[in-house]
Design a protein that fits this description.
Layout lengths: L5 H24 L10 H15 L14 H39 L5 E4 L4 E4 H16 L2 H15 L10 H10 L1 H30 L5 H20 L4 H21 L5
Antiparallel strand pairs: 1-2
Helix pairs in contact: 1-2, 1-3, 3-4, 3-6, 3-7, 3-8, 3-9, 5-9, 6-9, 7-8
Membrane topology: Multi-pass membrane protein
Main location: membrane
Function: Role in flagellar biosynthesis.
Length: about 260
């Protein structure tokens, strides 16, 4: 007859529960996995499957009672680490959405917005188009698998321990958040520049011929030029989008190292 000691059972539960918490934290926020259209049951099931694969290779975890206060603190730490890693990828996607918002407002389509269940707010149509395009690139280049590989590697870079993590990880996430604006401007710059030239030309035309109705001809011309520029720029957006997503994956590793305990 096989006898299982309570201490061994507690160790097995902890060795599975703590990696599962970090994995679920990433899946809850990261692009594609964290989309609100994905049912919570699917996310939890995927997290359990990944934990069953990753947990056996995780470095040895502290032998603590899963119901103790220290074990609960470790659980919270793993959740925070997972959320921070997933948020790094979400920021990369938010940079693309920012570019779409800038382009839409410059084209005059700022009013063309709808409710986005992901952000719980109004989102520009162009922004959603860029976000969907980025997700297609994300899947086509298998970067979602690279995210999972980075998640599995994080348990070696930052093993599960009872020590308090460093707060440098939060500063890393905050500094990475500024990439939303820089990436948005960089991605939208060619289209915004063309629209700026168009608006300047319309201004000169109106000055030369005041009888022209600038509101009657300017609005459709600006929208038309915007769509033409989007169509012209789309073939060249693949590499910048891939570089931005890869930068987000690299930041996931940096955030993991930033959470390394000081002692």
């Amino acid at each position: 007859m096989i006898h299982i000691a309570s201490a061994d059972l507690q160790t097995w539960i902890s060795a599975f529960l703590w990696p599962l918490t970090r994995i679920v934290g990433v899946l809850a926020v990261a692009p594609l996995f964290g989309n609100v259209s994905v049912p919570a049951r699917v996310k939890i099931l995927l997290g359990v499957l990944l934990a069953m694969i990753i947990a056996p290779g995780v470095p040895e975890v502290p032998a603590l009672d899963p119901m103790s206060l220290q074990a609960f603190l470790i659980l919270v730490q793993q959740l925070v680490i997972g959320l921070a890693m997933g948020f790094a990828m979400r920021i990369a996607l938010a940079g693309v959405e920012m570019a779409g918002t800038i382009v839409g407002m410059t084209m005059g389509l700022g009013f063309a917005s709808f409710f986005d269940p992901q952000t719980r707010g109004q989102t520009s149509v162009i922004s959603q188009f860029f976000a969907l395009l980025t997700l297609m690139v994300y899947l086509a280049t298998n970067l979602h698998l690279v995210v999972l590989a980075t998640l599995a590697q994080s348990f070696e870079l930052l093993p599960i321990s009872g020590s308090f993590v460093s707060n440098a990880g939060f500063f890393q996430v905050a500094s990475w958040g500024g990439r939303i604006f820089s990436a948005g401007v960089q991605l939208s710059l060619p289209i915004v520049a063309a629209l700026l030239i168009t608006n300047a030309a319309l201004g000169i035309l109106t000055r030369a011929s005041p009888q022209l109705n600038i509101f009657g001809i300017g609005f459709p011309i600006t929208i038309g030029v915007g769509f033409l520029m989007i169509g012209a720029v789309l073939p060249y957006l693949t590499n910048p989008l891939i570089n931005l997503l890869q930068e987000g994956i690299t930041t996931m590793g940096r955030i993991t190292l930033a959470f390394m305990p000081l002692n």
